[in-house]
Amino acid sequence: xxDQSAKQGSGGIAKIAFFVVLAIVMVSGLIFAPEHxxxxxxxxxxxxxxxxxxxxxxxxxxPTNETLWMVLAIVGIVLLMVVGTAGGKExxxxxxxxxxxxxxxxxKMVEDVAGKDAVKYFPGIMTLFMFIVFANFLGLIPTSxxxxxxxAVTAVLAMxxxxxxxxxxxxKNGAGFLGLFWVSSAPLALRPVLALIxxxxxxxxxxxxxxxxxxxxxxxxAVIKVFAGFAAxxxxxxxxxxxxxxxxxxxxVLVAFIQAYVFTILTCVYLKDALHPxx
Amino acid sequence: xxxxTTTTDAAHGAADAAHGAADAAGMPQLDFSTFGNQIFWLVVxxxxxxxxxxxxxxxxxxxxxxxxxxxxxxxxxxxxDMKQKAVEAEATYNQALADARxxxxxxxxxxxxxxxxxxxxxxxxxxxxxxxxxAESEAAIAEIRAGAVxxxxxxxxxxxxxxxxxxxxxxxxxxxxxxxxxxxxx
Lengths: 279, 186
What we know:
heterodimer, A: globular, B: mainly alpha
């Protein structure tokens, strides 16, 4: 009962806070009218990469704002997966049960999608999943930077998967891996055509694999920025775009997880193809 | 990042608007000059995460999950044992109850048989006594009846003698006796 009333109380406070923020936004919109009335929206500025410690030169090893958020992702992963499980309690703490859940989630995915013999590649897949999930969610913090919104990052992730899976396929099955492209259930005349299509689709995999992730993350962030620009331009009616931002943000939270999930499960599918190339 | 932006903006001065438009159109994602830097830091990040996960986190979580699974299995088997014991105890209890019931029935039957025997004996004894008494009484009655017949005979003889004497006849004792006896028989 007490718990419930507390919840209701916090809900009430949240409601009041929401209206207070709304009032402040409207009043400030009236007082601080936009300096230039035109739309000055730079939705892509948030993706700019700049050296972290000043200077204009961007060398290969210069720490950048992107480096910072990658390091923060590492910190988050260490906090969750290492510090959170430090006690190793049989009855888990909250953090430990989240870590266990993440473990079980990816482990089951690998086992179910890629098969039992793929379990030895589980740490690698877990690495991909944890990195993407943490990068995505940290990127949802306002004014932060999202590494997964950069095609360079997701392309490397996708190429790692692509090269690994292709090499593994040939190592495990030898020339039999080419059976992946030779649809033996199709009529003989059609097989060369199908083989060409299969081959093209195989090489398109890393492209779609990487662009899907970067595109989703980038689009959501850019849309939020565009709405924010509208909010600044509309003055008193700025709360409409702000409501829209809230809605898009909720969608972004969903996308942040789903894209990590999709990337991981596709990796599992490709791994399955490498281990069992028969159609 | 913001400080860099402002300095750039200040440097460009009048060309600010045009610069902004160019920035808005361009995608930092397609700025290939940053790719080497990004790839370097990404690889470093991935290597770090991979080692943290594969050397520390994942074995630890696996151990935790395994320990829990073992514990649960143990608890389940203990529970199974307990259940088995409970079933055995119930069987023993039921057996004891059945035995006790059987014993009780036996005792009841024995007691009943004993009592029945006593009752039978007493009844037989009573019957015997009753028949003895009856026989005795019959004998007494027979004696009395015999005594009565004798008395009647004597009285009748005397009466006949007296009657004959009164009528002037000398009564022959033998004849009278024979006559009375014959009469009484008839």
